[in-house]
Write a structure and sequence with these properties.
Blueprint: H1 2-15, E1 34-39, E2 50-56, E3 59-64, E4 73-78, E5 87-96, E6 102-111, E7 113-115, E8 126-134, E9 138-140
Parallel strand pairs: 1-8
Antiparallel strand pairs: 1-4, 2-3, 2-5, 5-6, 7-8, 8-9
């Protein structure tokens, strides 16, 4: 009997369920609202061969394409946490570092998805979207991106 109660108590504690009217146990994972774009640096030439610029509405972030020996790189554009499930315009522009030539330019509209990293009844609640910067297709889904 003791073992059953201990097992049930552990399950309740790990799932964050409320016991006898107490508040749920929350983990402390932090997360920000925003749009992330990932890519393979090797797709855009050698090490830091390009500059990747991502804009969401009027907020823009850019960085060098990264080390070609590293599996992937990313950039995130932070958004207000209270933005909600809105649709936002996302723009990508990849330019060659050597001569400033535009390698990829694309834009998409994306509805932000609700994320609650600590569970439904625990903060934070954030709104996110993710893309892959593809050298031929522009902004695509990050699903299936092999990190090898």
């Amino acid at each position: 009997m003791r073992r059953i109660l201990l097992t049930l108590g552990t399950a309740v504690a790990l799932t964050g369920c409320s016991v006898f009217g107490q508040a749920p146990v929350c983990t402390l994972m932090d997360m920000d609202s925003g749009v992330s774009v990932v890519w393979r640096p090797a797709d855009f030439g050698g090490t830091d061969a390009a500059t990747v610029r991502v804009c969401v509405e009027d907020r823009c972030v850019e960085r060098a394409s990264g080390d070609a020996d590293v599996p992937f790189a990313r950039v995130s554009v932070r958004l207000p946490d209270d933005i909600g499930a809105t649709t936002v315009p996302v723009r990508l522009k990849v330019t060659a570092a050597r001569d400033g030539r535009v390698v990829v330019e694309d834009s998409r509209r994306m509805r932000l998805a609700k994320q609650q990293p600590n569970g439904a009844s625990c903060p934070p609640t954030v709104w996110t979207a993710a893309f892959r910067a593809h050298p031929a297709k522009g902004l695509t889904s990050p699903k299936g991106l092999s990190l090898r």
